[in-house]
Amino acid sequence: MRSALFSAENLEKESHQPGMRLQNSKMLKIELNGEAMARVGSMVAYQGQVQFQALGSGGLGKFLKQKLTGEGVPLMKVSGRGDVFLADYAADVHLIDLEPGDALSINGSSVLAFDSTLNYDIKMVGGAGMMSSSGLFNCVFSGYGRIAITTKGTPVVLNVDAPTYVDPQAAVAWSASLQTGYHRAEQLGLGTLLGRRTGEAFTMSFAGQGFVIVQPSEEPPIQGAGRQEQSGGGGLLNQLLD
Question: Does the reported pTM lie above 0.90?
Answer without folding.
Answer: no
